[in-house]
Specification:
- The protein has 475 residues and is mainly alpha-helical.
- The chain has 15 helices and 13 strands.
- It has a three-stranded antiparallel sheet, with no helix packed on it. The chain has a three-stranded antiparallel sheet with strand order 4-12-11, with no helix packed on it.
- Helix 10 (344-359) runs antiparallel to helix 11 (363-380) and helix 12 (386-401) packs antiparallel against helix 13 (405-422).
- The chain starts with a strand and ends with a helix.
């Protein structure tokens, strides 16, 4: 079967897969697929729109079930078809069940409406996706069985009933094919959705495609011009005709053994990609510093770093930013001259510290830490990886606010280049970067005018920064 620029094919041990029907260029959209079914996490039900999945304040609550929330009447009207039966079920049961049960119910309501048939754009019917129930460990099977029982109590009375075995199959395919959905800034996972065509794209730790959630556009006056929430599959580079399309199911920033473990546990997948087979990147991610410290020193600092990161996570959860800074700085001192700048544990400490320093508005310190973090990421990630782009954006903003406009502008421009590939020009993140790029460019021109008047070369010194601020305030 074919769909647009790709076709379904037998990928051998990997099962079914998708491949390109023609040559694909960098950044090209190969697939734009609306969700078959999707739900906002219960924990964020009042903070995220249940139609477009944007996170924002002052949402409007559904007056009937009092559970679903929407940006406005436009989003509520657009989401009513998906919410209608859920709304009645929640009112009958008195409360909303967990995320998996709600998604399973939405999936079956959609399937019943479609009479079990795949649409012209679907390569396979949703219930023909793999469930891997035979591979579930006993504790996971018990959880699944509990979800099945909760589902049967929640399922609307008077609608088509399904045998428990089929419901187990639905929960299995949700477990292995469900995709977490980020908010419009890509900062937090806010929901769970199912996209049948995307589920056919196989994994590779160094993929040729990336997946982006497009939250759609409902700002036009006419509803006919509105675009729905959809997943986009974009090419990270040039793809040859007949080449298999792949995405990464896990973050590449893990040792190959750890990635393989995650893939086995989460997706029942034995990864034999080139990067896992040849352990590409492992040497950098576990590298010692150039001074060749002793094995005992590396072992000691590694254990200390892991322990510190656990404490950092707890302090962040408690909102104790001061403790996070203290822990990270102590850990970085220990790691100095022992762990390389590309070591995973060092990068994780740098990431946590840069984020908290920015929250505390200590931008000069945050900029220095973020610069080191980005330098490490650039040696490990694919040059068009979205995580690298987001890190560059955060680092660029820190430098900008620290008064280092020229460095910040360069980082923001590079982040914009990456996001144009991974997210496209109309995504909110890309638009934010375009705005920041324009603002920093204006400030650079203003700085140059100040320096030209004083006949000085471009610099990032504190006096030049103050001159720029004074000039911009006068403007």
């Amino acid at each position: 079967m074919t769909a647009g620029n790709m076709e379904l094919f037998d990928a051998g041990k990997k099962g079914r897969g998708l491949r390109a029907r023609r040559e694909i260029i960098t950044g090209e959209v190969l697939l734009a697929e609306p969700s078959y079914a999707a739900v906002v996490f219960n924990s964020l039900a009042s903070q995220v729109c249940h139609s477009c999945f944007r996170r924002q304040a002052n949402l409007h609550r559904c007056a009937q079930c009092r559970f679903a929330h929407y940006c406005d009447r436009t989003c509520q009207t657009a989401g009513w078809e998906d919410h209608k039966q859920e709304c009645a079920a929640i009112r009958r049961s008195g409360t909303a069940p967990n995320d998996n049960v709600r998604l399973a119910a939405r999936l079956l309501w959609r399937r019943n409406k479609d009479q079990g048939l795949a649409s012209d754009s679907q390569l396979v019917p949703v219930d023909q996706l793999q469930d891997h129930l035979e591979a579930l460990p006993e504790d996971e099977l018990k959880k699944l069985e509990l979800d099945v029982q909760n589902f049967l109590r929640y399922w609307s009375c008077g609608t088509k009933q399904h045998p428990a075995e089929y419901i187990r199959h639905i929960f299995g395919l949700i477990k292995y094919n469900g995709l977490t959905l980020p908010d419009q800034r890509g900062l937090q996972s806010v929901g769970l959705g199912l996209f049948p065509n995307l589920s056919l794209v196989n994994h590779d730790c160094w993929p040729n495609c990336t997946v982006t959630l497009n939250h759609g556009n409902r700002s036009a006056v006419s509803s006919t011009l509105h675009s729905p929430l959809r997943i986009e599959l974009r090419a990270l580079g040039k793809i040859s005709e007949g080449e298999e399309l792949t995405v990464s199911y896990v973050d590449f920033l893990n040792l190959s053994a750890e990635r393989q473990k995650q893939l086995k546990e989460r997706f029942h997948l034995d990864c034999s990609c080139d990067h896992c087979s040849r352990h590409i990147g492992d040497d950098l991610m576990a590298a010692a510093a150039e001074g060749k410290p002793s094995a005992d020193a590396v072992k000691e600092v590694t254990a200390f770093s892991k322990e510190t990161l656990e404490k950092v996570e707890k302090a962040r959860g408690d909102g104790d930013h001061g403790q996070v800074v203290k822990l990270c700085q102590e850990c970085l001192e220990k790691q100095e001259k022992v762990l390389a700048d590309t070591h995973l544990l060092k990068l994780r400490v740098l990431s946590a510290l840069a984020e908290v320093l920015s929250c505390l508005r200590k931008f000069s310190e945050a900029a220095e830490i973020a610069r080191k973090m980005v330098a490490g990421y650039a040696k490990l990630y694919h040059p068009n990886n979205a995580q690298l782009g987001l890190a560059l954006m955060r680092a660029g903003v820190a430098h900008w606010h620290a008064g280092q406009v020229e460095t910040g502008h360069k980082m923001i421009c590079e982040a914009y280049r990456i996001m144009m590939v991974t997210h496209g020009p109309n995504h909110s993140i890309t638009r934010d970067l375009e705005s920041m790029r324009s603002q920093t460019e204006v400030e650079l021109k203003a700085l140059q005018e100040v320096l030209d008047m004083k006949n000085q070369p471009m610099t990032s010194s504190s006096s030049a920064q103050e001159n720029t601020k004074d000039f911009l305030r006068k403007q």
